[in-house]
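Chapter summary example.
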Amino acid sequence: MMVLSLFDRFSTATHWLLASGIFALTLTALLLLKALAARQLERLRALHDYGFLAYLRELVSSTRISFLVAVAVLAGLTQLALPDRNQKWLQYAFVIIFVLQAALWGNRALSVWLDRSFQSHKASNPSGVTHLLVVGLVLRILLWVVALLMVLDNLGFNITTLVASLGIGGVAVALAVQNILGDLFSSVSIALDKPFVIGDFIVVGNYMGTVEYVGLKTTRLRSLGGEQIIISNTELLKERIRNYKRMEERRVAFQFGIAYETEVEDVERVPGLVREIVLGSGELVRFDRAHFMAYGESALQFEVVYFMLTDNFNKYMDVQQKINLGILRELRRHGIAFARPTRVVHMAEYARTGDANVSGARSLPAQAAGPAPEMLRHGRRQ
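The structure predicted for these 382 residues follows.
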């Protein structure tokens, strides 16, 4: 019996020595592997700064010593026959350390993604930085909640009741702050879909202005009058948004009328004159058409259509002014008159007798009587 007891003690000591050796070798190998990986990644970054290398560097640097020690301890314990109770507690400890380490890896990867997104949005869309902060916060909360639930589940807790309680509580909170959450998700939708960015000139319903700020709850416009217009993000997305900053070219259509007394030859000449005026108004103009469109109530109506190859409103107005002056100049040079609303009043019987009570004659107010009777006798226009 004494020999067997000594043999058991020797065997146990041997197993402990073997477990200690495996632990030491495993921990040393893991530390060397981490240092080597970090050095190689830094060398590769100096040669080629690929995007995925940033993720790998953060994963290596965020690997905790406690995790490496836990892996080494687990490797060494494979040589020992421990009681079931001790193995169970060791398993719990390892699960906790592994889940926390996985959460740290995910948190670092998320940080790298947010940093790279910040840099890309800083110049093109500064408002996107605010939304990325919200997205990052939400993703981090979800990451650590999932990690906590996994730890509790592996420790033997019944998380079904906990998840149900969180669900009921979440519904209650969501109902209480549904307006705020609606604006929050609308701001995230604006950040992801990008219907507009800061600096764009937009029209929303009856409001128009330049986007100055896109926040978590509201969007702020600077109107043409100078005042600031603050619109809820939820209400903003319910309206149809017209973004003039993204207009590649502007279609311009306008009309003018000339007098009915204009000769037919002059009427035929007008579309060609307008075409030459529009084509000569600048390189940013593309002529489309000019037509004698219709017989108006008091004018021969013409319609002109051209395209501005820029979204700049001031340049458009400069070109339109140049075209208007050109049309005015050319029509006057050719003796073509613009139409004005006119009315012809025939008062032949009144002009002959001078009696306002003659049957069939119309009685007009003094201010509408117009020129002298001798002018009306000849059918002159007023």
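To summarize the output: The beta strands are 201-204, 207-214, 218-222, 228-232, 241-243, 250-258, 285-295, 300-308.
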